[in-house]
């Protein structure tokens, strides 16, 4: 986890006209390679946390998997609060008999606060993210027109929009109150209904066109959401 302050050239990190801060925070995955190219002095902190330790303490947040260019840009108040927590972690860690549970508690507090800050950033960037939501739905509406015989999934649309899967999923949920998976599922059901009512294709053919490997998978999914089998719905 990296917390940078006094950074002036931030375009590479995904800041937009909605971000006015020169301080930001992001996460680096194990074995992820990155480099810096900066001309001015900056300050900040890094905290290295073992994935094993996070797993042992059952700590997991979706933003752990965000890309570096999906960084969190901090307001002055957020910067002060997070900076204070980083200092407290450093003070405890410098002790000869530091308490691991306390360090983990501080980290968990930071992670929880970061989640709150990302929600604020999603709101601040609403005009930008509204466009992403619209683009996602456009891609979804044209998906089956491209004759792709595979079920649409979140990863596919995240890649199309140049976003990490977790960041994409979180912003969609924040701005629509539905998960990306739920929206995709609704589209599959809508497309299935349309083809069942307006074509003479067999149920197996429709299921295959929608991306289901076996007709039974299609029938099971359809009944789960509609309460009827495709055959019953078609009558």
Question: Could you characterize the architecture of this molecule?
Answer:
By secondary structure, the protein is mostly helical. It is 55% helix and 6% strand. It has 2 domains: 2-124, no CATH class; 127-234, Orthogonal Bundle (Arc Repressor Mutant, subunit A). The chain has 10 helices and 4 strands, in the order βββαβααααααααα. A 4-stranded antiparallel sheet has the order 3-1-2-4. The longest helix is centred in the middle third of the chain and has 25 residues, at 100-124. The protein is elongated, with a radius of gyration of 23 Å. The chain starts with a strand and ends with a helix.
Structural class: mainly alpha
Order of helices and strands: EEEHEHHHHHHHHH
**Which geometry do the CA atoms define?**
elongated
Average pLDDT level: 88
The tally of beta strands, per DSSP, is 4
Number of helices, where a helix is a run of at least 4 consecutive DSSP H or I residues: 10
Distance between the termini: 57 Å
Strand content: 5-15%
Fraction of residues in helices?
55-70%
Based on CA atoms alone, the radius of gyration comes out at: 23 Å
How many domains, as an integer? 2
Q: Record the strand order, biggest sheet.
A: 3-1-2-4
Identify low-pLDDT runs. Answer: none
Q: Main β-sheet, in a few words?
A: 4 strands, antiparallel
């Amino acid at each position: 986890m990296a917390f940078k302050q006094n950074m002036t050239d931030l375009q590479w990190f995904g800041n937009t006209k909605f971000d006015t801060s020169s301080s930001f925070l992001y996460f680096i995955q194990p074995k992820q390679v990155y480099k810096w190219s900066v001309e001015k002095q900056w300050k900040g902190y890094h905290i290295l946390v073992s994935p094993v330790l996070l797993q042992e303490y059952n700590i997991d947040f979706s933003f752990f998997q965000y890309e570096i260019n999906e960084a969190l840009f901090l307001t002055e108040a957020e910067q002060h609060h997070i900076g204070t927590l980083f200092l407290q972690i450093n003070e405890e860690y410098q002790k000869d008999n530091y308490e691991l549970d306390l360090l983990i508690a501080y980290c968990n507090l930071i992670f929880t606060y970061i989640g709150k800050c990302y929600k604020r950033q999603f709101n601040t960037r609403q005009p930008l993210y509204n466009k992403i939501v619209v683009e996602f739905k456009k891609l979804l509406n044209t998906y089956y027109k491209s004759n792709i015989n595979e079920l649409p999934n979140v990863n596919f649309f995240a890649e199309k929009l140049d976003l990490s899967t977790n960041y994409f999923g979180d912003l969609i949920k924040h701005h629509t109150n539905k998960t990306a998976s739920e929206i995709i599922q609704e589209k599959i059901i809508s497309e299935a209904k349309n083809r069942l009512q307006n074509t003479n294709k067999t149920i197996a053919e429709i299921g295959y066109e929608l991306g289901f490997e076996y007709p039974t998978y299609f029938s099971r999914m359809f009944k789960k959401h509609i309460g009827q089998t495709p055959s019953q719905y078609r009558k």
